[in-house]
Amino acid sequence: MKCSRRRTVPMALAAVLLPALLALAAAGCSRKGSQGPSREELTSLLQQEAQSLKATGEKLDPVLRVKATWTVTELTVSPQPNDQDRPWAGLIRLHIRAETKDVGGTAQVDEFDRRFDYLWSASLHRWLIKPTP
């Protein structure tokens, strides 16, 4: 009887652990097979990048007497189906208004647009600025 009891305990344990291990293995495989972040997640990350560009661009030395206002005018994320390492492209367009005051108090206003192209790196899991030729 002791022999049969020893066999039933490991069999009962195996019967409980096997489904749990299979469920964990299936969950791990589904993560590996996923296509990465969704378009909504990538758009949010690109919006954070745009806010970072805006904050950096508007932070100027007061000695220069320049007040810059950066406004995001376009932010798009589009798929690149033929590139597995860079499956998404991103675009940020900014309108920049720079107001410069001279010593006499008169102001000169310059306005222009800037375009920033990005590629999503699947291996690095972040947006990279696309080099321009």
Can you walk me through this structure?
- The protein contains two helices and four strands.
- Strand 1 and strand 2 form a beta hairpin.
- The relative contact order is 0.13.
- With 133 residues, it is an alpha+beta fold.
- About 8% of the residues have low confidence.
- It starts with a helix and ends with a strand.
- The protein has a four-stranded antiparallel beta sheet with strand order 1-2-3-4, covered by helices on one side.
- The protein folds into two domains: 34 residues; 93 residues, no CATH class.
Strands, helices and their partners?
Blueprint: H1 2-32, H2 39-58, E1 66-79, E2 88-101, E3 107-121, E4 126-129
Antiparallel strand pairs: 1-2, 2-3, 3-4
The gist of it:
This protein has 133 residues and is of the alpha+beta class.
Radius of gyration, in Å, reads 28 Å
Number of helices: 2
Order of helices and strands: HHEEEE
Structural class of the secondary elements? alpha+beta
Q: Give the fraction of residues assigned to helices.
A: 25-40%
Describe the sheet with the most strands: 4 strands, antiparallel
Biggest sheet, strands in spatial order? 1-2-3-4
How many E strands? 4
**How many individual domains?**
2
End-to-end Cα distance? 81 Å
pLDDT averaged over residues: 82
Shape: elongated
